[in-house]
Write a structure and sequence with these properties.
A: 264 residues; B: 388 residues; seven-stranded mixed beta sheet; four-stranded parallel beta sheet; 20% strand
């Protein structure tokens, strides 16, 4: 079970106190539209009703990401954005809402798990999401995150077996990131019909909130997911808004998504 | 077919592992189990052995290179993997994995390819076994290995051009993994080298270790002893690991892996992570990886598309740290010179990949008995070399 820490409380509060059907967690790629642009987009998202923020650290080989987020990361890297730059963005917005850093394992490994966790905590992050660190490989970093009072958020997928789901659920921190579909990140026209059943399977393994991401592209999707999950994560659609219209477009989109999650 | 002793082999010392999205982990478990079961299934092993003999043409000869030996003043044997059907060692692995895909009920096979040899081998095996085949290939590699693209298409495979990054092997592997994440229930990913998440590095090694096993028997038969040195090129490192592993416990046999130094190790434009690299994660495994201080994987460079990869197999990283295998690197210019030298001395046009190993061996003559793994033939490289 989750260690009782200040950051765990912060994540729990964000899932409890939003007054909507579910908490809303947009994703932004750190430095995608410049460091100032990313800060402005994060602030706009927070002001427009985001409850938590997933902030991506650009990586050269993002295996879990589809073309849009891959391209956003490539742009950030081409502009010279470093992992430290993303921590500075985190530090600038972390007092507004809990920030989860979405970071690939090699970025963490290159400085060492304990060091990265400490730096992230110093930057005010509430947790880490490491998409290429499955449960079997995650023990060491989870301990380092516990020490640093960060939540290492686990991911589960539709392919995850019942046995793995139970193990992942019992070691989870913060919330369980439920990947809605079999595939990489990206907008889809429809939600998978098996999603409610999958969320129930995840819920049976944990007392923590269950948030759903991948493929959620429209306010209607967000609303449907909000009916059955505790949190709605919208990535590619938000990154596309940042690409097309900067912070203003991100704010408008997040407002629309938050509106869709309001109870009637 | 002989097999590794350990049923589940996920780490090589501190290296290896499975650093992939959760979506793929159950498929890796399934593959691991299928491979263990196939190894104890006499029908599977017999079918693979028969195909390797009658279709691939194994065992490949161990040929005493008379004129090369004279030039070097030593005795040099070439392990003639270039004489395999499709012209390289890649078919050993592609055939085994395609049989395994069929056994798992997966009718769609995807692969990545750099030089095109693994793509051609996989397309060939899929044609033979009536499986759908999709090959991811960097756009730059498609340019420099055009004949292999045409071969794959002729064999019925779809070749998908990958335009990300440097448009070479690293991006092709990434594209194949993303396809696998999306289609994992119907699709087998036939990875082409001893890299990737477990169980791939061990699986590919097991399918390639017959290179070393045959060599051992053949040299005992002709020379009555083991070689002093076994030299092989290393990109991901599948021909090398297959050649080395049967000699691992023969402490008197020196094992040398030759990487591509590209334009020079000090230029930063090379493909020599074992010779120079730090620890890093690439394509699902912790191994030696070319990367910057932030952990971003940096582009590799080599004239040889098959060596143009910033990572290496995790077992190689371990063998390096253990001091059992020595890793060195050879520059583009020297590899091209060795390519020409082999053609004119022995009437054999080698691939650019083993030309690196040849160049190192010629520049560092031993005192006795050498085996060079001639991992593939060089027809695919003619345009590149003639334009050099």
């Amino acid at each position: 079970m989750s260690a009782p820490t200040a950051t765990a409380d912060r994540i729990a509060d964000a899932f409890a106190g939003h007054g909507k059907r579910a908490a809303l967690m947009p994703y932004l790629m750190g430095g995608h539209t410049g460091l100032d642009g990313s800060r402005a987009a994060a602030v706009a998202a927070a002001s427009a009703g985001a409850d938590l923020l997933e902030l991506g650290v650009p990586f050269s080989d993002p295996l879990a990401d589809g073309p849009t987020i891959h391209e956003a990361g490539t742009r950030a890297l081409a502009a010279g954005v470093t992992p430290d730059d993303v921590l500075s963005i985190c530090a600038d917005v972390a007092d507004r809402l809990p920030v989860l850093l979405m970071v690939y394992a090699n970025i963490v490994l290159s400085v060492g798990g304990a060091t990265y966790a400490r730096r992230a905590a110093d930057a005010g992050a509430a947790g880490l999401i490491v998409p290429d660190l499955p449960h079997d490989e995650a023990g060491e970093l989870r301990e380092a995150c516990d020490v640093a009072r960060l939540a290492l958020i686990p991911l589960v997928a539709p392919t995850t077996t019942a046995e793995r789901l139970a193990a992942i659920g019992s070691d989870a921190r913060g919330f369980v990131y439920t990947v809605s579909l079999v595939g990489t990140t990206g907008e889809r026209s429809q939600l998978p019909p098996e999603l409610p059943a999958m969320i129930e399977r995840v819920r049976a393994t944990t007392t923590l909130p269950v948030a759903v991401g991948f493929g959620i592209a429209t306010p209607a999707h967000a609303r449907a997911v909000g009916e059955v999950a505790d949190g709605v994560i919208v990535g590619t659609r938000v990154v596309r808004a940042a690409q097309e219209g900067g912070a203003q477009a991100v704010g408008a989109l997040v407002r629309e998504l938050a509106q869709a999650l309001r109870r009637a | 077919m002989s097999r590794a002793t350990s049923a589940r082999e996920r780490e090589f010392g501190p290296y290896g592992g499975r650093f992939v999205p959760e979506t793929l982990v159950p498929a890796l478990d399934e593959l691991e189990l299928a491979w263990i079961e196939a190894g104890t299934d006499d029908g599977f092993t017999a079918e693979l052995a028969a195909l390797l003999r009658d279709y691939v043409g194994r065992p490949t000869p161990l040929y005493r290179a008379r004129r090369l030996s004279e030039v070097m003043g030593t005795t040099v044997y070439l392990k003639r993997e270039d004489l395999n059907h499709t012209g390289a060692h890649k078919i050993n692995n592609a055939l085994g994995q395609s049989l395994l895909a069929r056994r798992m009920g997966k009718r769609r096979v995807i692969a990545e390819t750099g030089a095109g040899q693994h793509g051609v081998a996989t397309a060939t095996a899929c044609a033979l076994l009536d499986l759908e085949c999709i090959v991811y290939m960097g756009a730059e590699d498609m340019r420099r290995q055009r004949p292999n693209v045409e071969r794959m298409e002729l064999l019925g495979a779809s070749v998908v051009s990958v335009d990300a990054g440097e448009r070479t092997l690293k991006e092709a592997v990434s594209a194949a993994i993303r396809d696998w994440v999306a289609n994992v229930s119907t699709t087998h990913y036939a990875i082409g080298s001893a890299v990737g998440p477990a169980p791939y590095p061990g699986l590919v090694r097991d399918l390639q270790r017959l290179i070393g096993e045959e060599t051992r028997e053949q040299i005992q038969a002709t020379e009555g002893r083991l070689p002093d040195r076994v030299v092989a090129c290393v990109g991901g490192g599948s021909n090398a690991i297959g050649a080395f592993v049967p000699f691992i416990h023969d402490r008197d046999v020196e094992l040398i892996g030759v990487e591509a130094a590209g334009e020079g190790l000090d230029t930063g434009r090379h493909s020599a992570p074992l010779t120079t690299g730090a620890r890093g994660i690439l394509h699902g495994a912790l191994s030696a990886v070319l990367q910057d201080d932030d952990g971003q994987v940096v582009p590799a460079h080599s004239i040889s598309a098959g060596l143009d990869y910033p990572g290496s197999g995790p077992e190689h990283a371990w063998l390096r740290d253990e001091g059992r295998v020595r890793y060195v690197a050879v520059e583009d210019d020297d590899a091209v010179a060795a390519f020409r030298q082999m053609a004119q001395l022995e009437g054999i046009i080698p691939a650019l990949e083993p030309s690196h190993a040849l160049a190192w061996m010629v520049a560092n003559p031993g005192t006795g008995l050498d085996v060079l793994v001639l991992s593939g033939r060089g027809d695919k490289d003619l345009a590149e070399v003639l334009a050099w």
